[in-house]
Specification:
heterodimer; A: alpha+beta; 3 domains; 8 helices; 4 strands; flat; B: mainly alpha; Arc Repressor Mutant, subunit A
């Protein structure tokens, strides 16, 4: 059966999610399968291509070929956030000028910008309590020191503070285009939640001791063979502080990531920076 | 379910979909995952065979030894699984 342009367009759009090296074969496979699908089911069949393409994007390439985004080091992460934050403030000030011309916002002053920041902080505070329970209780009896906990909390607080100007900038942007775009308020909320979600996710992916991003994810268990068993991924701290187990199942017993602290006896393995 | 369907001779993605009743967005990633876990292996049909049948070549799936063992273990655990997919004549690849 010959596919219509609509189904072909869906497959073509989904193919952009796949890694470039596998795109041609992926597209060929889906087109071949589509040929056998009855016309009335073709649309629903093609929509499944997005799920498959996304799976291939996440699991298709080898882990060590993932590009580095420069956020591995906590200091560099804060520096990048500070730069973006400064840029956000400048853009927000720039956006305030056309916004003040609008009758609705004509009475807006610099104080309102500060109030906006405080409102953003309050908004963040509403969503962030969940992050304080980022990890399950450690898998072994080596407790994380209070210094590490303090550093972790401080790092999170700094990140939350530094994303505020970026969020205000996003808010101003959506205010400016609100008369043109109907879904402005919705997009504004989505942007803010996405930024806060990144803060939380980034925190979860860091070693609680040295705050560096965890590396070398390795798959544990095989989902194809496990019905009620555990499977997921294990990442390592490049300095050898420990391992993070992240379950792919969403049971109450395996919802959060679990940190396994490695003892001093493991330090020899990591001293040569083998990872 | 998917292993059972392939073992029963439903060796293309779409027929696996039809037999199991699962959506394409579930079946194809699951097939890739099983292939990565070496439970199944895939092979493209020869272009000449497809040309003679006036259709595009398709990708066939076949159970590996590990896949057979896993399916056997699953059948022991869930005896009704064997009744899920009726056996079909496996085409020559």
């Amino acid at each position: 059966m010959t596919a219509s342009w609509r189904e072909n367009a869906i497959l073509r759009a989904a193919s952009f999610l796949t890694p470039a090296g596998q795109r041609a074969e992926w597209l060929e496979e889906w087109r071949a399968e589509l040929w056998y699908v009855p016309r009335r089911e073709a649309m629903r069949f093609c929509l499944g291509a997005f799920s498959d393409a996304w799976w291939l994007r996440r699991n298709g390439g080898p882990a060590d070929k993932k590009p580095s985004n420069g956020l591995e080091s906590p200091v560099r992460c804060l520096a990048i956030l500070a730069s973006l934050s400064a840029l956000g403030i400048l853009v927000a000030i720039g956006l305030a000028v056309p916004l003040k011309r609008a009758p609705l916002y004509s009475g807006m002053s610099g104080r309102d910008l500060a109030d906006g920041c405080i409102a953003m902080l309050a908004f963040s505070s509403l969503l962030l309590p969940g992050t304080f329970a980022v990890w399950r209780s450690p898998a072994n009896r080596q407790p994380t020191s209070w210094r590490s906990k303090l550093r972790l909390g401080l790092f999170l607080s700094l990140k939350v503070a530094l994303v505020q100007p970026i969020m205000v900038c996003a808010m101003m942007f959506w205010f400016v285009i609100a008369p043109v775009v109907i879904f402005g308020p919705l997009a504004m909320s989505a942007t803010m939640i996405a930024i806060l979600r990144w803060v939380i996710t980034d925190q979860q992916r860091r070693c609680p001791i040295c705050l560096r991003l965890l590396t070398n994810p390795v798959r544990i268990g095989t989902p194809s063979q496990a019905l009620l068993d555990w499977y997921g991924a294990e990442s390592t701290c490049s300095r050898g502080h420990g391992l993070m187990h992240v379950s792919e199942t969403t049971g109450s017993y395996s919802k959060k990531a679990q940190w396994l602290r490695l003892g001093e006896s493991w330090s020899g393995l990591f001293s040569a920076r083998q990872l | 379910m998917i292993l059972q369907a392939i073992a029963a001779g439903h060796v293309y993605g779409y027929t696996v979909m039809e037999v199991t009743g699962l959506a394409s967005g579930t079946i194809y990633p699951a097939l890739r995952r099983m292939e990565r876990d070496r439970l199944i292996r895939s092979q493209w049909e020869r272009q000449s065979s497809a040309d003679s049948a006036l259709r595009p070549p398709r990708k066939y799936y076949k159970l590996t030894r590990a896949g057979d063992a896993t399916l056997e273990a699953s059948r022991k655990r869930y005896p009704l699984l064997a009744k899920l997919a009726p056996a079909e004549e496996v085409p020559e690849i």
